[in-house]
Amino acid sequence: MATTDDSVNGMTEHCEECDLETxxxxxxxxxxxxxxxxxxxxxxxPYRVSECQRCGDRSSQRMNNA
Length: 66
Known about the structure:
single chain, mainly beta, 0% helix, elongated, 55% strand
């Protein structure tokens, strides 16, 4: 689970690679999932992207798995 810590001014999360709670850069990206050009405009989905600032490991998770 992500937490905020005023002393490091960022988001700390558990990193699978480091096996520690580390500072992460977290962003939301809109990704196109369809490979077909005619459907691309209808297949954009938001993804939460998290990157460990210690080791550089990145993970992403689709945000609306309805």
